[in-house]
Design goal:
Helix content is 58%, strand content 8%. It is α+β, with helices and mostly antiparallel strands. The protein folds into 3 domains: 216 residues, Transcription Regulator spoIIAA (2-Layer Sandwich), CATH 3.30.750; 277 residues, no CATH class; 118 residues, no CATH class. Strands 6-5-7-13-14-15 form a 6-stranded mixed sheet, sandwiched between helices. Strands 8, 9, 10, 11 and 12 form a 5-stranded antiparallel sheet that branches. β13, α28 and β14 form a beta-alpha-beta unit. α9 crosses α11.
């Protein structure tokens, strides 16, 4: 037919897996997968190029600094660095309040980590320092381990209790430093073992919902500073700080109206100190959360700018750089850092070209700490709280994500809402853990419940598409092409099998049970026939002699012309009782039994209750169908409607032992009902996993795997036919054995 001809338009041979490996000369597994010993030897092998590459990748400053052009990059980096440094001042002091620390420690946090990142970081445009979310997370730790109630002291004048602010802040600094150092060490270790991919588990909806909820926490945290104060809107944070400081200083707001101010800012840098390691056990969970969140924000910003400006960011090295910034910073009483979107955008839009912009911004902070620090002592904390509010406006705009995600992806919307609610209801670290677990569960659920489809051919092409979604897709007669949108593994293997049964329309369990019942009936009939054999001995000998003479005359074709038809399994033979005539019917009987000693004859009418068969000269197909109904009849759908099933595994990137067992069971179960199973589109890695899982055997060979669905379809059509039911030819061995037993 024209449809069959369109399918046959393939200008190459049909390639199964065995032939494909011969043509492509597939390499052995050992050639593509070195052993563990070889990997260890290779990792410890030291050569000059490898050593140079290792040093350059571990210390990126050695790569870009020798190439630095002061003429081309000097002025843009200087302008950019000064602009970012000015932003560091208000943000550093304001975000320190979120961390429940004195504002001066926000300035320290804007200084030391920025210097460290210059040497180890690979991004040219991100600005390392304080960030809203991390500040809130640190604040939750410091307030939990150092609450005000633990630092109450008695006022000797009026016998009242008040908080010892100096002792409280000192201990909170120790808690923040210990958390920061531990989080930095976690980041360094993860970077060294190449775990830079962990940040990918924080999806964009999750991060945006998390930061939105964290912004709500930040607002609540600042109410204690801003309550009762109505600040006037100014043009920028720095001018606001200057104006607020001048007003507070000349009006004595702290002494006259008990307005909380920044307080003493010591001139000079603090000396390094070893963090209290005894706190590590209490803050390890918080440190891990800080490490993951900080890295996720850092790598997302870094890759955004790298893609825009055409350079590459090393995710593992970024993890190490951020970890070293936190570890070293923790020794100088800094708290956890990561890039800030607002500062990074300023650094990029003002012309920053390299990490040298970070040097300029750090110098601005350094000058402020050394010379200008005392000027901010009278700055009201309400001004810093107002700055926090202004910087949070971008995060509050993220509530519009709900509308966007509703239109684009309901699952991402659920992730957003669960993250937002869990972060609001629980602490930030518990909210993050719950959000990550839920996001991973959505991935598992989606792989457990993928889309299953039956494919049809696009006429005139080698393309096969879902028949439910494409009107022009045409079903291949006798062939079902089944595909899952996800890989097959232990979590969905059982559902995969059920979907295959449903899509193919074959209820294997009922069909096999039906077959077993029919076989049991045949065995009972056989035993009854054996009991009748004594009474019909003379007649049986006559027919057996007739059959033996026919076989001894030696031509199978002649036997077929006389009407001998055999089941493929060699256990059912049908012989004519009366000769064929061109016009009239002939009577048939069947000969049952694999062992010649227990072979018996029975009438065709016994094959199925109430069903007698009389065949004319061209009734071979009818006879075949009668025989098949005995052993392979299904409920509502005869097996010859589908003779082959092709499983498209092109979407599978791996296959585990449970899936291998499931696919093997599919081969075995469908073979019971004489339906051939073929696999198509398997990737080389999947074939290797099938080999290692002992999938292939004498009954399942690589001849059952095909390079593409089209190859498998052509093989099925050539092997079993496009529209006609497959013919089972007589087995020479079975006929020979039967003749030998009867002679």
């Amino acid at each position: 037919s024209l449809y069959r001809d369109s399918l046959d338009q393939l200008e190459r041979e049909v390639l199964d897996e065995q032939r494909l490996e011969e043509v492509t000369q597939r390499k052995a597994y050992a050639e593509t997968h070195p052993s563990l010993t070889e990997c260890l030897k290779d990792s410890f092998r030291c050569t000059v190029p490898r050593l140079k590459h290792s040093v350059m990748s571990s210390l990126p400053v050695l790569y870009w600094l020798p190439k630095y052009s002061v003429w081309d990059y000097g002025m843009p980096d200087l302008i950019s660095g000064i602009s970012v440094g000015i932003m560091h001042l208000p943000q550093g002091m304001a975000y320190a309040l979120l961390a429940s620390l004195p504002p001066v420690f926000g300035l320290y946090t804007s200084l030391y980590p920025a210097f460290i990142y210059i040497f180890f970081g690979t991004s040219r445009h991100i600005s390392i320092g304080t960030f809203t979310v991390l500040s809130i997370m640190v604040g939750s730790v410091t307030e939990r381990l150092a609450p005000d109630m633990d630092f109450l002291k008695t006022n000797g004048t009026n016998i009242t209790t008040e908080v010892d602010i100096t002792a409280r802040d000192s201990y909170r600094v120790q808690v923040a430093a210990a958390t920061t150092v531990l989080g930095g060490l976690i980041q360094v270790v993860l970077g060294l073992v190449k775990f830079g991919f962990v940040g990918t588990y924080l999806s964009e909806p999750l991060v945006r919902a998390y930061t939105t909820a964290a912004a709500a926490h930040a607002v609540v945290a600042q109410l204690k500073y801003i309550f009762g104060v109505s600040p006037t809107r100014f043009s920028g944070p720095l001018s606001l700080i200057v104006a607020g400081t001048l007003i507070s200083s000349y009006s004595n707001l702290n002494s006259n109206y008990t307005i909380s101010v920044v307080g003493e800012i010591p001139s000079g840098l603090s000396s390094p100190s070893v963090p209290d390691v005894s706190l590590f056990g209490e803050v390890i969970g918080d440190a891990f959360a800080l490490a993951i969140v900080g890295y996720a924000i850092s790598i997302s910003l870094g890759k955004t700018f790298a893609l825009k400006h055409g350079y590459k960011v090393d995710s593992n090295q970024e993890l190490v750089a951020l970890g070293l910034s936190n570890t070293v910073g923790g020794f100088f009483q800094c708290y956890s850092v990561c890039p800030s979107m607002s500062r990074s955008l300023i650094q990029e839009t003002t012309g920053g070209k390299t990490q040298m912009a970070g040097v300029a911004s750090a110098l601005v902070v350094l000058v402020t700490i050394l010379k200008l620090g005392p000027l901010f002592q009278e700055l009201p904390k309400a001004i810093l709280a107002a700055i926090v509010f202004v910087n949070l406006k971008g995060m509050f705009k993220q509530y519009s994500d709900v509308v966007t995600l509703w239109k684009r992806s309901k699952i991402d919307l659920v992730v957003w809402l669960v993250t937002w609610v869990s972060t609001l209801l629980f602490n930030l670290d518990l909210g993050l853990a719950a959000s990550i677990i839920f996001a991973l569960l959505t991935v598992i659920f989606r792989t457990q419940m993928p889309t299953y489809s039956v494919l049809g051919n696009v006429p005139g092409t080698e393309l096969y598409v879902d028949m439910e979604t494409h009107k022009e897709a045409r079903e291949i007669p006798g062939v079902t092409i089944f595909r899952s949108s996800a890989t097959v593994y232990f979590a969905n293997a059982e559902l995969y099998l059920e979907a295959l049964k449903e899509k193919s329309g074959l209820d294997i369990s009922k069909m096999i049970i039906y077959k077993r019942r029919q076989e049991a009936k045949q065995r009972r009939r056989e035993r009854r026939a054996e009991r009748r054999a004594k009474r019909q001995a003379k007649r049986e000998v006559m027919y057996a002699g007739h059959w033996a003479d026919t076989c001894m005359d030696g031509d199978i074709t002649d036997n077929e012309e006389q009407g001998c038809t055999e089941r493929e399994n060699g256990t059912v033979f049908v012989i004519p009782v009366t000769p064929r005539t061109p016009d009239g019917p002939c009577r048939w009987e069947y000969l049952k039994g694999g062992d010649p000693d227990c072979t018996s004859l029975g009438w065709m009418s016994e094959l199925q209750d109430g069903d007698t068969t009389t065949l004319g000269s061209s009734s071979d197909d009818t006879l075949s169908r009668d025989l098949e109904r005995v052993s392979l009849g299904s409920l509502g759908k005869w097996t010859w409607d589908i003779h082959s099933i092709i499983i498209d595994l092109s979407t599978a990137n791996f296959i585990d032992t449970v899936a291998i067992k499931t696919v093997k069971n599919i081969f075995q179960d469908f073979s019971e009902i004489d339906v051939d199973i073929y696999l198509a589109g398997c990737q080389a890695s999947v074939v290797e996993q099938l080999e290692r899982g002992d999938f292939f055997s004498e009954s399942i060979t690589k001849r059952s795997l095909f390079a593409s669905v089209h190859d498998a379809v052509l093989y099925c059509l050539n092997h079993r036919g496009a529209t006609s039911f497959p013919r089972y030819e007589p087995s020479v061995v079975s006929i020979h054995n039967l003749c030998s037993g009867e002679s």
